[in-house]
Amino acid sequence: MKYEPLAQKDVFQSMVAARPMHRKEYGKLATHLRADLLEAQRALKATKQSLIVTIGGLDGAGKGEVIQLLTEWMDPRDLDTYSFWDMPTDTEDRPYHWRYWQSLPKRGRIAIWFGGMYTDPIEREVNGARESGWLAEVSREICFFEEMLRKDGTFQAKIWMHLTKTAQHRRLKGLYENPQQHWRAMDNDWKNHNLHDQFTAAAGELIHHTDTHCAPWNIVDASDRKWRNVTVGRLMHTAIKAAIEPCLAIETKKITRTEVHQKKIHYLADVKLDQRMEKNSYEQALITWQGKLHRLFWEAYDRNISTVLAFEGWDAAGKGSAIKRVTAAIDARLYRIVCVGIPTTEANNYHYLWRFWQPLPRAGRITIFDRSWYGRVLVERIEQLASKEEWTRAYAEIKEFEKHLVDHDTVICKFWLHISREKQMERFKNRLKTPYKRHKITEEDWRNREKWTQYESAVNDMIHHTNTPYAPWTIVAGNNKKFARIQILQSICSKLETALGGESGDH
Amino acid sequence: MKYEPLAQKDVFQSMVAARPMHRKEYGKLATHLRADLLEAQRALKATKQSLIVTIGGLDGAGKGEVIQLLTEWMDPRDLDTYSFWDMPTDTEDRPYHWRYWQSLPKRGRIAIWFGGMYTDPIEREVNGARESGWLAEVSREICFFEEMLRKDGTFQAKIWMHLTKTAQHRRLKGLYENPQQHWRAMDNDWKNHNLHDQFTAAAGELIHHTDTHCAPWNIVDASDRKWRNVTVGRLMHTAIKAAIEPCLAIETKKITRTEVHQKKIHYLADVKLDQRMEKNSYEQALITWQGKLHRLFWEAYDRNISTVLAFEGWDAAGKGSAIKRVTAAIDARLYRIVCVGIPTTEANNYHYLWRFWQPLPRAGRITIFDRSWYGRVLVERIEQLASKEEWTRAYAEIKEFEKHLVDHDTVICKFWLHISREKQMERFKNRLKTPYKRHKITEEDWRNREKWTQYESAVNDMIHHTNTPYAPWTIVAGNNKKFARIQILQSICSKLETALGGESGDH
Predict the structure, then answer these.
(1) How far apart are alpha carbons A451 and B427 in whole angstroms?
(2) A179–B86 CB contact, under 8 Å
(3) Does B324 touch chain A (CB under 8 A)?
(4) Which of A107, A224, A351, B20 has the CA that lies 20 to 30 A from A258?
(5) How far apart are CA A459 and CA A216, in angstroms?
(6) Chain A residue with Cα closest to B369
(7) Nearest-CB residue to A346 (from B75, B77, B346)
(8) Residue A20 contacts residue A80 (beta carbons within 8 Å)
């Protein structure tokens, strides 16, 4: 299937017109299609790829009917249907894309998305005047998301079922006049029918912007039921086949090694590791900043502002004990700690960011990540658990992820706890001496220590590529734990104060 | 540790009084405790048991502080903390116990429950006059839940941190007067202090009712911080040790084989399998009942009434096609189909009912189970995947589960699709002839067919034990698929009409 993007004007005009189909012909085609779909579905199951099929379209085009039919024709055990309508507060509380991350298909499976990422922007565009450029920004986010998934092996097909205004009127009238189908024509459908031109314009613009190689659109004339069903069924079959076939590499702009080297700054080399704090002033400062943090987090709770704290750092840099000084100041009902280790079998079924989206905080809450999504460009890079292609593109994916959080008014603090190599050795030795700390030292820690230089370089790259204005890194001078803890508490307080408008006074 | 249940009056009087502890003694005890806790935690991890520790207590007793401390002393990677406060609509929408099922520890892990199942009933008892017997019924439900988990290998320890009225006053005053601890004494705490006697009475009664062998209570004097911390830490250690040791069997009233046989009725033998429906009247009836069902489900949506449909039946009885006739009548955004197969690795980490609680519908929605929790007393019984002990107690557990749904105003319809053995053979042969149905026949189907008589007996027992007035079985005469489908549609309509108050007229 040769792919040619749809030109803006042609979005609906290039649509192939439906042709009436005889009952017998339909029956015969459907029988074959069912066998083909089931076979393709079984073949997909054996692969590591997955597929999202978005079914969009105007009211009366029969989105629900077609989805029913597809679940009837296919094996429902390997197929999940998701709609994004009337979401619970649990979803509304999270960054907007959270709902889509919760609805991804596992590898080998198919997800049908009822309206997908498109219904909501189209309705918002029709119902309220948005700022100019709004739809373009939404489209950019969607394209980024779709391309990211595609590179990870999640294929996508998008089907728009179209009706001209006349055809829509005919359909709704037909349903309305048949007492037994009456219920299929809802009040809202009639209301939207009057806005047919606006809906078509908004849909056309969005489709034009999001018709990419990664996730192309298909426009289907929905004016004839049998034609529509067979056409959508065939598109589904083509989409599954495309997902099964050996992946064609997607072209991406590569960051070449030279580029990285040219720009490289030695962030870690600049850290003043000799900064320290004495016991007395530390204890006083701890109480002051913890009290302040406590109040700020309650205020953030009252104002539905969420916080994400990500802690990265060398082994024995004091992440755990620093986190404890932070949590000591937060009501136990407000926060959650997520310890990030090797991905589970479950997590490996999805894009690597999936497991970080899932525990994002509800409105007003705090999620603390003890190690984070940056594992992709640190341990996974160095241990070659991710290919160069994968960890290189992760920088942009992470920036986009964090942008979604910030757009949702989430406060992000990212800490790299830095210590010198000598300090690490000193702490390793100390841990071996204390009974309840001994379990903290494993062979892996010693192995990681051997790779200090490699990690140093990876950390520099990481900071370089992800130190954005909206989510900057804080590099913590960790040789003195007391100094480090207060630096962290202060930094969180300062970010929260800015987010809350700075009116929160100290005392 | 010999266990003696707490007498109602003695609940708090028998409490061992705190003794002041010197800083040095505390430090030494804490160091040992930490090592013990970590060791016990690691040993638990290697077992198939899990542990829930509930931390309850009056305001100012330091629940939050103690939970902080425990996560500090223990390995936070194998420990999860849950609170049940300010729940999102996603939770409020579901049967009350849903929140607890979502907070269970995996095998080998520990969950700390902040207030657990106790805070809410105590507050409700204090804040509003409840019907007499209310607290007793809540207690019965809690005891059932705790015993059920215990039998499945989830141990439980419950700690109540107590303060006399004088001690509570002293604690709140102390916090309030210290500018740096000021934030620890919340307005609400002072309000509740005035209700100290009422809180103590309600807590005392609830503790008295729920102090069982399966999940005993421990009362801790919280008037001295160091004593309290050490005591709670030790109780935690004892609880983990108890969970590690080889399980002592819990005595339960066994349903003896004779008992079952005496009562046995041949439910399936009574089904009139020759009932049929002709094509013309079927097509008319299908449209009528689907239209009616569509309206009823929208009405249920408007009124926040959820529905659970469970389909069980012989292989080739027509479950799949019957479900399709039901879903054809429901808006695709309102329902979800759950196909129940062999439990996944994830599901095996929990009580077998866990995977059925998770997908329960939100308010106003519908979940359709294609096979269900009854697998426990059917396939798992016959294939010996569950021990006799396990499937025998499942009857009561299932009845309790369904009672929770009904108490939450969920409509439950349970269908057994019955066919004759000859009809099954006829359908197996037909399936082999149709290309898109061939995949439906597997070797397992033939094996199951060999065990017809065993299944027949298991189905009779199942219906006998779980055919409750609040969730009765509908046995569907399935030899004629058309008749069966209309019987199912009518049955759901009738249950919904009753739930909606019967005012919904037919047309």
Answers:
(1) 64
(2) no
(3) yes
(4) A351
(5) 37
(6) A77
(7) B346
(8) no
Tell me: do B211 and B325 sit in the same domain: no
The residue among B218, B244, B270 that closes a domain is B244
- Residue A331 Cα, gap to closest chain B Cα (Å): 7
Sheet holding A79-83, edge to edge: A79-83, A110-114, A50-57, A154-162, A217-221
Residues of A in contact with B370 (CB under 8 A): 76
Neighbours of B457 (CB within 10 A): 17
A439 to chain B: which residues are within 8 Å by CB? 38, 42, 75
Domain count, chain A: 2
Is B252 a member of any domain?
no
Q: Let me know whether A297 and A156 are in one domain.
A: no
Chain A residues closer than 8 Å to B38 by CB? 436, 439
Chain A residues with CB under 8 Å of B328 CB are 68
Global confidence as pTM = 0.84
B42 and B147 together in one domain: yes
Instruction: Mark whether B63 and B194 lie in a shared domain.
Output: yes
**Residues A333, B64: C-beta atoms closer than 8 Å:** yes
Kindly state whether residues B295 and B219 are assigned to the same domain. no
Amino acid type, B409: D
Q: What is the CATH number of the domain that holds A394?
A: 3.40.50.300
Answer whether B341 sits within 8 Å of A38, measured CB to CB.
no
Which chain B residues are closer than 8 Å to A161 by Cβ?
A: none
Structural domain contains residue A295: yes
Same domain, residue pair B174 and B214: yes
Q: Tell me the C-alpha to C-alpha distance, in Å, between residue A296 and each of A264, A292, A501.
A: 37, 6, 11
Q: How far apart are CA A458 and CA A233, in angstroms?
A: 47
Last residue of a domain, one of B244, B274, B309: B244
A88 touching B (Cβ < 8 Å): yes
The secondary structure of B404-450 as a DSSP string is HHHHTT-EEEEEEEE--HHHHHHHHHHHHHSGGGGGG--HHHHHHHH
Rounded Cα–Cα distance for residues B100 and B83 (Å): 10
Q: Say yes or no for a CB contact (<8 Å) between B114 and A333.
A: yes
Neighbouring CB atoms inside 10 A of A166's CB total 10
Q: pLDDT of chain A along its 507 residues, tens only?
A: 456 677 766 788 878 889 999 999 999 999 999 999 999 999 999 999 999 999 999 888 889 889 989 988 998 888 999 999 888 888 888 999 999 999 999 999 999 999 999 999 999 999 886 787 888 899 999 999 999 999 999 999 999 999 999 998 988 888 777 766 666 566 777 888 889 999 999 999 999 999 998 899 999 999 999 999 999 999 999 999 999 985 555 554 444 444 444 556 788 988 999 999 999 999 999 999 999 999 999 999 999 999 999 999 999 999 999 999 999 899 888 999 999 988 877 888 999 999 999 999 999 999 999 999 999 999 999 999 999 999 999 999 999 999 999 999 999 999 999 999 999 999 999 988 877 777 777 888 888 899 999 999 999 999 999 999 999 999 999 999 999 999 999 999 999 999 998 554 443
ipTM score for this prediction: 0.77
Measured over the CA atoms of residue A314, residue A319, residue A321 and residue A325, the dihedral's sign is: positive
Residue A504 lies in a domain: no
How crowded is residue A112: how many other Cβ atoms within 10 Å of its Cβ?
25
Same domain, yes or no, for A278 and A207? Answer: no
Domain of B87, in residue numbers: 10-244
Closest CA relative to residue B66, chosen from B227, B239, B202: B227
Judge whether B440 is closer than 8 Å to chain A, CB to CB: no
> Is residue B362 situated within a structural domain?
yes
Chain B nearest-CA distance from A180, in A, is: 6
Report chain A residues whose CB lies below 8 A from the CB of B325.
none
Q: Which residues of A touch B333 (CB under 8 A)?
A: 64, 83, 85-86, 114
Same domain (yes/no): B309, B182? no
Tokens matching residue A287: 């109480």
